[in-house]
Every structure is written in C-alpha cells, then in structure tokens.
Amino acid sequence: MKISDLSAKTGVSARSLRYYEQQGLITAVRRPNGYRDYDDDAVVTVLTIRSLYDLGFPSDLVRTVLPCTDGTNVDQAVCQGVVERVTTIRDDIAQRVAHLSGTHDTLTRFLEERAS
User: Fold this and answer.
1) Which pairs with CB-CB distance under 8 Å and at least 24 residues apart come from 64-70?
2) What burial class does residue 12 get, using C-beta atoms within 10 Å of its C-beta: 0-12 exposed, 13-18 middle, 19+ buried?
3) Which has the minimum average pLDDT: 8-12, 23-27, 58-62, 109-113?
4) pLDDT tops 70 at residue 13
5) CATH code of the domain occupying 1-58
6) Residue 30: phi, psi to the nearest 5?
7) Does 21 or 116 have the greater pLDDT score?
8) Which of 21, 62, 68, 86 could connect to 79 by a Cys-Cys bridge, CB 3.0–4.6 Å?
9) Who contacts 48 (Cβ-Cβ below 8 Å, separation ≥6)?
C-alpha cells in the first residue's frame, strides 16, 4: 500500500511514517516509480508505534519494545529487559498520579474552605 493509504488507515501523517522508516521502525519496498510500498502488517505496526509514543516512550525504547509486541524474532532476554523497563515506567507514572491526586485533594479542600 502507498504511504497515503497507510496514513489514512492509521491516522498517522505521511511525515511521521517517513520518520518511523528513517528510525528503522517500519520498512517499505520501493516501487519502480520510487513510491514506497508497505505491506498490510504495517498498519498494526504503525498503530503499535503510535501507542508507544503516546505513552511517552522515547524512540530508543520504542525500537526495543516493538519486536516484543508481535512475537516474531523475539530475543527473550531483550523482552525481559523491556518488561522491567516498562514496569519501572508504569510505577513512576503511578507515583506521579498519586502525587497529583493528593495535590488535587489539597486544592479542593482549600477551595471548599474558602467557599464556606
């Protein structure tokens, strides 16, 4: 499929798709006319990449995590390291959520006291 088709199916801009390709996250075959040709699996891969970026993962972690998401050519030791790193990220987020929740509660009490 052409880059415009992949963009339409995933909601990811053609510019981002070219960046993903530059980073080695997706691959395309070049047609004789120079256009990129992506296989159908690229849709799932791009959606996975987008989700990982949306979670705040840096490019190097996305590159490491990606092979662990589809079960092909997986180095179990690498994937175990990924699990540990993702667990750390999740735990850090949980701590930030708890802190923000406490701040929210403090601000709510402050405003309630001032409204009385």
Assistant:
1) 66/25, 70/44, 70/45
2) buried
3) 58-62
4) yes
5) 1.10.1660.10
6) -90, 130
7) 21
8) 68
9) 66, 69, 70
DSSP state of 12: -
Please answer whether residues 52 and 66 qualify as being in contact, where contact means their C-beta atoms are separated by less than 8 angstroms: yes
Helix (H) or strand (E) holding 35: none
The radius of gyration of the chain from alpha carbons, rounded to an integer in Å, stands at 20
Quick check: pTM over 0.70? yes
Residue with tokens 């980073």: 23
Which residue do the tokens 């708890």 mark? 98
Q: Helical H runs in the chain?
A: 3-10, 14-22, 42-54, 59-70, 76-115
Task: Report the C-alpha gap between 76 and 73 in whole angstroms.
Answer: 9
Q: Specify the pLDDT at position 55.
A: 83
Amino acid code (one letter) for 83: V
Q: Which two tokens stand for residue 64?
A: 């490491």
